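Chapter summary example: a protein plus methylmalonyl-coenzyme A.
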Amino acid sequence: MSLTAAWVAAWSADPTRVVLRAPAEDVAWTAAELEERTSTAAAALQAGDVQAGDRVLLSCSPSAATVVAYIAILRAGAVVVTANTGYTTGELAHIESIAQPTHRITDANVDLADLPAPLRNPRLDTALSDAPAMLGFTSGTTGRPKAAQLSHGNLLAGARAVVEAWEWSGDDMLLHALPMFHMHGLGVGINGSLTAGGAMLVLPGFDPSTLAEHAAQASMFFGVPTMYSRLADADRLDALRTMRLIVSGSAPLPADLFATIAGQAGQPPLERYGMTETVMLTGNPLHGERRPGSVGVAMPDVDIRLGADDVVEVRGPNVFSGYLGVDTGETFTADGWFPTGDIGRVDDDGYWHLVGRASELIITGGYNVYPREIEDVLREHPRVHDVAVIGRPSREWGEEVTAVIVGDADVEDLRSMVAASLAPYKRPKDYRFVDELPRNAMGKVDRRILGEQIG
Ligand code: MCA
Ligand code: AMP
């Protein structure tokens, strides 16, 4: 079954229910209206020559129009290619060179007004379960993004798992304040809500006071730890008290923040763990102990084990089929499991903990940054002789991107170089200068020692 056939079935079960609210756009659409708008938009995409299997770049801010465009691409049988709206021209060009999209939807044309009149007999919701639905970009070890290919079946399995685990129903209203170009906002937020037959209240972005203002209307909120920490700083966590479920993910939730949320929001947050390549993998239970510092137990239908070097390995209907252009032999183990790159351990009663990462990946505010990509840019400066980019602990961001430089380049010069080629979240928040970088016997920078040295 295609993902969208499942959504259409959920809409037709209760067509008069309001399923999409977006106060900033004055939107309150029933299931019948959302069905009608997305089928018209999908038919317009097909009139605009979007064929089944074509790749459509979607790089838009969160809005009702973005939700419609996303659903329409999938209903038309095309593949959603996600891209951060903060990308520079160079970053976007790289994504496009890998994904080769035939069409582009950005904030400038998200209303799809530039398309011809919709086809009269569109072919909608006909994608098979193994047809590609999404190309999601993740940081590769070379520092440049790789495209993870997810099918309709992968995304449907991922959505059904969270629907089951969180007893998500048609009575739920999700307060959606996440970006709509990542698995968290799309694969969990939107796909989960549509699969459950629930409703969403979409905000154009995250800010504590707007969130608090709308919280009473919603039953669920999903956020990254930075959002919870900002709600705590603004003294607005109590706005979440009326919700039935608050979920944290994308980055580690520190135990002290867990305790602050539990106290001020009147309920422990449910921390879960996922990846672009797999949708969700584990989660603390809806009923039962939510263990601080643990990412919980395996999601329904997900198999999880510890592989070589304590890397977490996973398998299941939600796990992607591979990266575009990369041999699957390099991506999966010989017996078909996906090594996540996260180092884990498991308690006797099945609760998983993530204790580190096999790679140098930095996670800042829920966004992934690969040091190499920033180092490559900084190294271009003639007065940078050597450089290492590391993540330093930060209360606000979890990890803060920091550039450590050997040389005497001017920091303002470095900042403007970086701004010209990298999205804002990748830009170092701090620049430090040292006489030399600590290296191990293999000549590789020892990032742990470097972190200790600069404090
Ligand atoms: C914005 N900035 C950041 C970040 N976000 N810097 C580092 N890390 C970030 N995450 C920059 C801004 O560009 C700006 O730079 C400065 O920091 C302050 O911006 P501000 O307005 O305060 O930021 P914001 O727009 O309010 O964004 C903060 C945010 C956002 C709301 C927490 O980062 C966010 O939505 N994060 C969620 C990411 C997410 O959805 N991840 C899921 C990935 P300047 O001052 O220079 O202009 S999917 C995933 O990980 C898997 C599947 C999973 O498990 O979920
Ligand atoms: P992405 O490539 O953006 O999908 O990010 C996936 C990565 O985010 C995972 O491999 C983990 O390293 C990290 N992650 C997601 N959820 C959690 C969590 N609850 N705790 C710690 N790390 C997490």
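Key point: The radius of gyration is 22 Å.
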